[in-house]
Write a structure and sequence with these properties.
The chain has 218 residues and is an all-alpha fold. It folds into two domains: 22-80, no CATH class; 95-218, Serine Threonine Protein Phosphatase 5, Tetratricopeptide repeat. It has helices at residues 15-35, 45-57, 62-93, 97-110, 115-127, 131-142, 150-166, 170-183, 188-199, 213-216. Helix 4 runs antiparallel to helix 5. It starts with 14 loop residues before the first helix and ends with a helix.
Length: 218
């Protein structure tokens, strides 16, 4: 609207602004009955959004609001990782290779040193018969696994044994299995695999996605 001498821009203290401020304060007062004055749990995003608006919009406490924004963003980031890794597992199970390839590129950009992402990548390469490349990825991942991620380390080692057997290096796989068990005696998956290797019953892995090897390789 074009401003004229009769239509002036509302000032901060104009009646309209006071009405809006009053309505906003009343709205947040009702919200506070539901969420309380203390910051909600970061995973409760709806309540957190309301609380942040109240903290800044009514109380004018920007730093307190910003601190809770950071808590919520950290919560969202951690949950994003879990859902993305679950998505990667499901895509691999469903053999949706092109979509999985795109997701792996994104995951590497977001989490370049994450061992679980590397394991997913190694499994992708194994599915396409790229055993040597998968072994290279596994070796990189080994040094990046945290102490509390023993389950991940065991799965990584199992993938390593698969790659060695697929490359007709069964003797090397046996030695690797013995080395792993010497250090990690509770790795039941590796113990079972070693038993199969020594008994000659270890099933040689096959590249079940070879028909897409050129387009889906990474």
């Amino acid at each position: 609207m074009k401003l004229t001498s009769k239509s002036r821009k509302p000032t901060r203290n104009s009646p309209g602004n006071f009405l809006r401020l009053g309505a906003r304060a009343a709205y947040f007062k009702r919200s506070l009955k539901r969420i309380g004055k203390k910051p909600p749990a970061p995973y409760d995003l709806n309540a957190s959004a309301e609380w942040i608006k109240w903290k800044f919009g009514v109380k004018g406490q920007a730093r307190g609001a910003l601190r809770h924004v950071h808590r919520c963003l950290n919560e969202i980031a951690s949950r994003e990782y879990d859902f993305l890794m679950t998505k990667a597992n499901l895509l691999g199970y469903l053999e949706e290779w092109q979509e999985l390839k795109s997701l792996l590129v994104y995951l590497y950009e977001r989490y370049p040193n994450d061992a679980e992402v590397m394991l997913e990548h190694a499994e992708f390469l194994s599915a396409h018969g790229q055993w040597e490349k998968a072994l290279s990825v596994i070796r990189r991942a080994e040094s990046r696994i945290r102490k509390e991620q023993l389950w991940l380390l065991e799965n990584l080692y199992r993938e390593k044994l698969d790659c060695l057997v697929a490359l007709d290096r069964a003797a090397a796989a046996k030695n690797e299995g013995k080395r792993i068990l010497k250090k990690h005696k509770r790795f039941s998956i590796i113990r079972s695999a070693l038993r199969s290797l020594e008994g000659g019953t270890y099933k040689k892995p096959k590249a079940y996605a070879q028909e897409q090897l050129t387009t889906a390789s990474t």
